[in-house]
From TrEMBL:
Keyword field contains Transferase: yes
GO MF annotations, alphabetized: kinase activity
Residue ranges crossing the lipid bilayer per the database entry: 21-42
Keywords, in A-Z order: Kinase, Membrane, Transferase, Transmembrane, Transmembrane helix
Protein's UniProt name: Integral membrane sensor signal transduction histidine kinase
Length: 71
């Protein structure tokens, strides 16, 4: 009794296997693209927020140095 796991005799099995491999590769690629896209977006938003808060604090310090009321 011969066991041929990867020898597909019918063309439909070959097409199905090829389609499954290509589909899996595309899904994995899209998964990584979304993951790194979201990571990039979140990092950029964090940098923007830190920069904005830093400028706000610098402005408040400048007002306090002028002798105005510091709150």
């Amino acid at each position: 009794m011969k066991i041929n796991i990867l020898k597909f005799r019918k063309i439909s099995w070959r097409i199905t296997f090829t389609y499954a491999v290509v589909f899996s590769a595309v899904v994995i690629l899209l998964n990584f693209l979304v993951l790194y896209g979201v990571r990039f977006y979140l990092r950029q938003q964090a940098i923007t927020q830190v920069d904005s808060i830093g400028k706000n604090i610098e402005g408040k310090i400048a007002v306090c140095k002028k002798g105005d009321v510091c709150r």
